[in-house]
Amino acid sequence: MSCNGHGASMQVRGLRYGPAGIDPLIDGVSFQLDPGDRLAIVGPNGAGKTTLLRCLYRALKPGQGSVLLDGYDIWSLDPRDLARRVAVVLQEMPADFSFTVEDIVTMGRIPWRRSGWLPAIGQRSACAASEKAAVWHAMEHLNVVNLAKRGFATLSGGEKQRVLVARALAQDPQVLILDEPSNHLDIRNQLEILDLLRGLGITVITTLHDINLAAGFATRALLLHGGRAIAEGLPEDVLTEANLSATFSVKAHIHATGNGSAPNFSFALRA
Predict the structure, then answer these.
(1) Between 157-170 and 187-198, two packed helices, what is the crossing angle to 10 degrees?
(2) Of 72, 99, 130, 167, whose CB neighbour count within 10 A is largest?
């Protein structure tokens, strides 16, 4: 496993999803990512961010539109092939796993096993060594090696989040999809996680509530409201005062840093 891998391209065309009889939860969303792009999806609660992610990793099948991974519709791919190329870290935190941290991270290698949970007998030693190296490599990057033998259920929320990201990293994906990866993390850990993701060299798609984190992390941004894309493109073109004020019903103000860094945002309620 390499923690500086190669990303895949993703093209989303006219995505529409929603149960029959109600307004669509996602309606007409399109965007394109080049390998190695980092997309931050932002928007108010109920904007459709998590639903969009579920369409991107094939948990939900859109009623219209398509999601292409390196030019192939994800619904045409073998599930194991898709699992080898796309890893997911969900917002929902598992409450009680009766596994150790090492067990959880090792689960990220399942798509690479030739015969399910165990490799063929003749390949077991070589596969086990390679797998263990990949698992420990991922744990080292997420700084959870010291937790390897701890029960997952005994960890704090922040520790659990780091372990779940390590599991996704052990999967050696080309695309990493995360739903609010900064949840449960203090400021330092938020910055460390995003800095790690920035250096992976793979395509990253994540939802983020914190606009300042999104602006500093993303190479592309998608602003959602009511299931529709309000704006998509470079962060400086999407995360504008006008767009953010209208989408979140607040007064947004951008503070230029003047040192080449991402701008800082502040928000206030409208009078």
Answers:
(1) 10
(2) 167
**Nearest alpha carbon to residue 58 among 94, 27, 104, 12:** 12
At what angle are helices 124-141 and 157-170 packed, to 10 degrees? 140
Q: Between 165 and 3, where is the model more confident?
A: 165
CATH topology of domain 10-93+174-269: Rossmann fold (3.40.50)
Q: Are 186 and 10 in contact (CB under 8 A)?
A: no
Does the pLDDT value for residue 149 go beyond 50?
yes
- Residue-wise pLDDT tens digits, 219-262: 999 999 999 999 999 999 999 999 999 999 999 999 887 776 78
Boundaries of every domain in the chain: 10-93+174-269
pTM of the predicted model as reported, rounded to 2 decimal places: 0.91
pLDDT in tens, 184-200: 788 888 898 999 999 99
Residues in CB range of 241: below 8 A, 6 or more apart? 252, 253, 254
